[in-house]
Amino acid sequence: MTRPGDWTPGAGSEADPALDLDFDRDDGDARDVGQDRAARLKKSPSAFRTISEVADDLHIPQHVLRFWETRFPQVKPLKRGGGRRYYRPDDIGLLRRISDLLYIQGYTIKGVQRLLREGDGTLSGELPPPDVADRGDDHELTAHPHESVDLATQEDDTISDAAEPWIPLAPPLAVYAEVDALKAEIRRLQEVLDLVLGGLVDLRRSLPS
DNA sequence: GAAACCTTTCTGTAGCGTCT
DNA sequence: AGACGCTACAGAAAGGTTTC
Question: CA A9, C1' C10: Å apart?
């Protein structure tokens, strides 16, 4: 099976002259998941990717990616005829950041939406930990950034979207260190899982059909 | 006051038709 | 055939209302 490492829209193809993705899937082959993944990983960082590739790379189900698209207007993959999505590197970077905020840092979708609204829409750079209003749980956040803000003048003790623009305060460094350690651990576990997957693929290949 | 019930919101999930 | 998209639906949690 052949699959070019790179494919980008706009370069002419038999299937779709208007938007060539130069992507020979060779569906006649029994597709090898391991090789498939390896080929995908070899793709140029600037290559466009399908939803299945992005889902695989980010370890996020496809339906979740589509759901995020309905929640984050900033996520706008290119769409071909038939509505198929093709993600640019920028889209993937944004999705990766959203995933990190939602699943690692504990933001809610609303919280991430607020960050996107207040930032430049890319979520680039270091972000503070979520405050109570942006968290998906009700953990005590005795040191959350809003604590040092004088809340006496507010009508209630909630931090609503309608409140004054969020002011970044000195981050709790211990929390950042812990988050960084957890991220490193997650990366390590993902590498281990990739190795296990590769081993399983090899094992399957060695079995009689 | 608190228990029970109802409604709304959030975050996905399932099913099925379409497209490559 | 399998990847994909769309829409309706699920279920858990939070908030609100009613009843005792």
Answer: 38
Could you tell me the two tokens for A99? 């995933």
Q: Where are the domains of chain A?
A: 44-119, 177-208
Q: What is the pLDDT along chain A (209 residues), one digit of tens a residue?
A: 323 333 333 333 333 333 333 333 333 333 333 444 444 444 455 567 777 677 767 777 676 777 777 677 777 777 655 556 777 777 777 787 777 777 666 666 767 777 776 665 556 555 555 554 444 433 333 333 333 333 333 333 333 333 333 333 444 556 566 667 767 776 777 777 677 667 766 666 665 55
| A63 CA – B14 C1', rounded, Å | 11
Determine if strand B comes within 7 Å of the CB of A136.
Answer: yes
Please, which positions of strand C sit below 7 A from a protein CB?
A: 1, 3-7, 14
Nucleotides of B under 7 A from a protein CB: 10-15, 18-20
CATH number of A44-119: 1.10.1660.10
Residue nearest to nucleotide B18 (CA to C1'): A82
What sections of A24-172 are H helices per DSSP?
33-42, 51-58, 62-71, 89-99, 109-118
Q: Which nucleotide is nearest to A82 (CA to C1')?
A: B19
Helix residue ranges per DSSP H, A100-167: 109-118
C-alpha A112/C-alpha A71 separation (Å) is 10
